[in-house]
């Protein structure tokens, strides 16, 4: 399971990186050709791409343990309590992303039904695709947090400081 999660989150990270490069090239192109009256709608593309890029990177950050965390209290307690703190945090993370998934599900479905777009004029950006990316990535994060929670419960948590000094 661990290998699958690592490979899949690396794949999502790669998609996010490629998407980010395409957004940067769009901005660059629009700036270069602005004087010629060519408008690519970079503002619409950037505004709608940022949530998708971020949500594609979140599973990788969580799975690799590179999310921001403080160890102020964590470093002062025994190993068993550290694993309990991690288990509670993983459960809360699971519930947060489950809430995002459940809360956005109906909007995603409606977006697909009506082919929801945002923007007027030069470009209309498909919002339903971004909603789908957010829901999908949130469900992937729920899977990751479930795996991490089970490891913490069974004492196999390998996050920094979880096994002691």
Explain the overall architecture:
The chain is an all-alpha fold. The protein has one domain (2-153). It contains four helices and two strands, in the order H-H-H-E-E-H. The chain has helices at residues 2-33, 42-63, 79-114, 127-153, and strands at 117-118, 125-126. The protein has a two-stranded antiparallel sheet.
Condensed summary:
The chain is mainly alpha-helical and 165 residues long. 71% of the residues lie in helices and 2% in strands.
List key phrases describing it:
165 residues; two-stranded antiparallel ribbon; mainly alpha
Write the layout of secondary structure elements.
Layout: H1 2-33, H2 42-63, H3 79-114, E1 117-118, E2 125-126, H4 127-153
Antiparallel strand pairs: 1-2
Helix proportion of residues, in percent? Answer: over 70%
What is the helix/strand order?
HHHEEH
Total helices: the number is 4
Instruction: List the strand order in the largest sheet.
Output: 1-2
Radius of gyration: 20 Å
